[in-house]
Design goal:
This protein has 17 helices and no strands. The chain is mainly alpha-helical. The longest helix has 31 residues.
């Protein structure tokens, strides 16, 4: 039983007093640590690579889970649309337990296994999902906030979408945006023929539809960005909830009612609106493209701020949950009013008055 300790101690002291330059002080402590582990003591000085065995076993389990979730998402349409947001979970769990290098090896293996399930065309999807799981694990290990994690995952989703779109155009001559717009135009033409047959076609129908198509095409960048943020939130929420249930130390999201946009958001919004008055309404300019997308993103942020204010008010008044549900429906239906509430709350902090009124 003591043979391992005797051999380890003897070797350590021999190295300590050795004049050989090939053995440095940094290696001495490592040699001493290796030969004094419990596994070595139990086996008479022969180190057993149990940690590597655990890495391999756990990695194989996570790769298998990744493959199963990916297969479910590919071949079970309805359930797959939900399970898709849990696919990065195995990579996240492995990164939380082991180092970056081992996690990268498991990620590569997961991509290779995924190619066997869905073919080469599914490799980009597997790469994107693996990166999402790895990014979530990295942000947790480095102690980043959940907001930072959501933004990092959203950026990963956005980059993946852009790369996939560019790859489809370059290698497969498939333009998803043009295909979508062609589908809209065909639907618009069918609607036009239907209304013409009924004799109910408006006089300015062509102008209305052309303006609508111009707006939709111009706001594609903002829709992609907002979609990436929403998808990033769903990925983080699903993976963090499940990881927390299996024992991982995960921070919780603060309540949505505590959301507060910085005052600088109002300043940026005001600058964009005022600059649009000076630049005019040239819909073919680059500035118009920037303006319309910035307005869409900021108004969506103010919509969320308005909903947060409403939830804060309802929570302060201790109203039942069904009131919150009904109010949410009306707040979305009357979104211009909700956006205005969010704008005012960002500018003058309305919720401070709500708390003051409660105290009085």
């Amino acid at each position: 039983m003591f043979l391992g300790e005797i051999l380890g101690t003897a070797l350590w002291f021999w190295c300590l007093h050795s004049n050989r330059d090939t053995i440095r002080g940094g290696h001495l402590d490592e040699i001493y640590r290796i030969f004094h582990t419990d596994d070595v003591l139990r086996t008479g000085g022969i180190p057993i690579m149990q940690d590597n065995a655990r890495k391999l076993t756990y990695g194989a389990m996570m790769i298998a889970l990744f493959a199963v979730l990916l297969a479910v998402s590919l071949y079970i349409p309805l359930f797959g649309s939900v399970s898709m947001f849990f696919i990065p979970l195995p990579i996240l769990l492995y990164r939380l337990r082991y180092d970056r290098r081992a996690s990268l090896l498991v990620a590569v293996a997961a991509i290779l296994v995924s190619s066997l399930l869905g073919g080469l065309l599914y490799i980009p999807v597997a790469i994107s999902l693996v990166l999402i799981g790895f990014v979530m694990g990295e942000t947790i290990q480095t102690g980043k906030s959940k907001f930072y994690t959501v933004m990092a995952v959203s950026l990963t989703v956005l980059i993946s979408m852009v790369v996939t779109y560019v790859g489809g155009v370059l290698f497969f001559e498939f333009n998803a945006i043009d295909t979508m717009m062609d589908t809209f135009q065909e639907a618009q033409q069918r609607l036009k023929d239907f209304l013409s047959g009924l004799g109910a076609l408006p006089k300015d129908y062509e102008k209305i539809t052309s303006d609508a198509f111009l707006y939709y095409r111009s706001t594609i960048p903002s829709m992609v960005i907002l979609g990436s943020v929403f998808a990033g939130y769903l990925f983080v929420a699903a993976s963090f909830y499940t990881a927390g249930r299996v024992g991982a130390k995960i921070q919780k999201f603060p309540p949505f009612r505590e959301m507060k946009l910085p005052f600088m958001t109002i300043v940026v919004y005001a600058v964009i609106i005022l600059s649009s008055l000076l630049m005019g309404n040239d819909t073919t300019s680059t500035y118009y493209l920037f303006y319309i997308n910035a307005v869409v993103i900021l108004r969506f942020a103010f919509l969320l701020q308005g909903l947060s204010l409403i939830y804060y008010f309802l929570n302060e008044r201790k109203l039942p949950r069904f009131i919150t549900i009904i109010t949410t429906v009306f707040a979305i239906m009357l979104n211009p009013i909700t956006i205005m509430l969010g704008t005012l709350d960002t500018a003058i902090n309305i919720r401070a008055w709500i708390g003051k009124d409660k105290v009085n």
